[in-house]
Amino acid sequence: MIPSLSSLTHLNLTGNLINYIASNTFSDWNPRVIDLSFNRLSGVDDWGLSVVTELYLQSNTISYIEIGGISKLNRLEVLNLSSNRLETLPNSFLEYLTDLSHIDLSNNDLGDFLEDPSVPGVFSSSSPIRLEKLSLSSNSLKILRPGYLSNLTVLEHLDLSHNKLTDVNSRQFQELNLLKSLDISYNELSEFNYTTVNSLVSLKSLDLSGISWTCDCTIEDTLEWLQTTKISLIGYQKYECAEPNSKKNVLLSELNLDGEKCNVEIIMEKTIILIIIGCTSFVILVVAAIVFWQHRWRLKKKLKKQHYRSSAPKVMLNVAGRCMKGHRCPCLTTMTQRPCRRNTTLTHMAITTLTCMLVHHTKLYHLAMSTPTLPSSKSSGKHLLSSNNLDIFKRKPAKMVLSLCGEISTSYILQFRC
């Protein structure tokens, strides 16, 4: 047991590989400052630190904080929990630390916890919070919820550097009227709207280092503000452009935008051109649709005529090929033995019949000499050839075929229900 040292005010136990401290270990002591940094402590418990004002626990492996461990630290003013493994914090834990003025939570894993909208405000309290300095640096913080820090009305120094913030705006700093120093350096910002800090009337120092500035005409107002503001800009002489490539690595303090065409202007010009092309195309399509609708029947008839003309040679070649190979003639078999297909037209049947006659004129000759009759489903057919046409057929079969076109179309083809 360590003897009572009531007069001890500072206790430094840093770097001693301490991994456990029993409850009420320091209850008989009266140290005001305790340094337990660079040890192996895994949590904060009730160690009997009722009168301590400064507690340094950085660079341990702390992953939890017990309410019982901090509920008695009502005199604590400075708490350093940086470089630990904290992923959560007790809700409204600041209610117990009524005298706390400085807390360092940097280099932990609190990003997801602080972003979660279902988690009550960690920095809220029913009693006034006297926190003046807060560090949330290096916590992989992507979003700072609007109004999340609004209860910290006396906050003077805020460090949000080395996180993953992509946007900052005035709503995130509501009620921070006494804020004097703001550090948002080395986040994932590509721009900064100076109106963000207009409401921070007490701001004296601002660190914007590490922003990937886009140096086109969109930065003109911000650049003017950076050059004229009375706020101390930490590292301003090293702020440099990231885009466009023509301005890359150019210092903002030396940037000249005279004659530069803004990317926004270029985009607007392209957009206007695309709109004009789109509108013109639309008007043309509408006019074409109206013309087509007004002349739809003429176009339909014209297309039918073209279809018949283009399909006739194919039908003749196909039929001729079949007849030359010795197949039964389609005009005397298919068309007489089964109904026509729905898309069969009189033109196709006539072409088929005429083609068969031209190729097989000898067969037709014998057929004519025997004066055959064309079959019919209900009554006997009519004679295909008249006596007048027989003489013509004997002399010129091809001419005979053409002369028979009228008779075929009326006496034969029209008998089928297509």
Describe the overall structure.
By secondary structure, the protein is α/β, with parallel strands linked by helices. Among the domains are: 34 residues; 107 residues, no CATH class. It is built from eleven helices and 14 strands. The strands form three sheets. Strands 1-2-4-6-7-8-9-10-11-13 form a ten-stranded parallel beta sheet, with no helix packed on it. A two-stranded parallel ribbon has the order 3-5. It has a two-stranded parallel ribbon with strand order 12-14. Helix 7 crosses helix 8 and helix 9 packs antiparallel against helix 10. The C terminus is likely disordered.
| Cα distance spanning the termini | 115 Å
Residue-averaged pLDDT: 76
What overall geometry do the principal axes of the alpha carbons give? elongated
Strand order of the largest sheet: 1-2-4-6-7-8-9-10-11-13
Low-pLDDT ranges: 308-317, 319-346, 362-368, 371-418
Subcellular location: Membrane
GO molecular function: signaling receptor activity
Membrane topology: Single-pass membrane protein
GO cellular component, one term: plasma membrane
Topology:
Elements: E1 10-12, E2 33-35, E3 43-44, E4 54-56, E5 64-65, H1 67-70, E6 78-80, E7 102-104, H2 111-115, E8 133-135, E9 157-159, E10 181-183, E11 205-207, E12 213-214, H3 220-228, E13 232-234, E14 241-243, H4 263-294, H5 296-324, H6 334-337, H7 346-359, H8 361-369, H9 387-395, H10 397-403, H11 405-411
Parallel strand pairs: 1-2, 2-4, 3-5, 4-6, 6-7, 7-8, 8-9, 9-10, 10-11, 11-13, 12-14
Helix pairs in contact: 5-7, 7-8, 9-10
